[in-house]
């Protein structure tokens, strides 16, 4: 339960750009069809890689992630779970956009 809280805390710290992208992709999936979801998944992966790269450039000593490292969460685990959370949010919002609106 502690790790879930830590993952959600990290996702909240970077959530602005992925949520905006999720809303954009959900609208595009409604307009262009369900086949656009593959493009959305790869683009969201690219966005996460850009966020990682920007964090790496800003703090090369990775001092901002020591909190997570000290709690037993590796960097790969942190970004993998963040991507999975982001994909789940994409599917939930896409489902809402497709079936409700």
From TrEMBL:
<feature type="transmembrane region" description="Helical">
    <location>
        <begin position="35"/>
        <end position="57"/>
    </location>
</feature>
<protein>
    <submittedName>
        <fullName>Uncharacterized protein</fullName>
    </submittedName>
</protein>
<keyword id="KW-0472">Membrane</keyword>
<feature type="transmembrane region" description="Helical">
    <location>
        <begin position="78"/>
        <end position="100"/>
    </location>
</feature>
<keyword id="KW-0812">Transmembrane</keyword>
<keyword id="KW-1133">Transmembrane helix</keyword>
<feature type="transmembrane region" description="Helical">
    <location>
        <begin position="12"/>
        <end position="29"/>
    </location>
</feature>
């Amino acid at each position: 339960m502690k790790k879930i809280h830590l993952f959600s805390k990290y996702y909240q710290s970077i959530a602005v750009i992925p949520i905006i992208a999720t809303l954009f992709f959900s609208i595009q999936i409604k307009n262009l069809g369900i086949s656009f979801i593959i493009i959305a998944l790869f683009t969201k992966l690219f966005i996460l890689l850009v966020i990682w790269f920007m964090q790496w450039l800003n703090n090369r000593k990775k001092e901002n992630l020591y909190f997570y490292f000290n709690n037993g969460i590796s960097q790969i685990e942190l970004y993998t779970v963040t991507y999975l959370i982001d994909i789940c949010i994409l599917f939930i919002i896409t489902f809402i956009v497709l079936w409700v609106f």
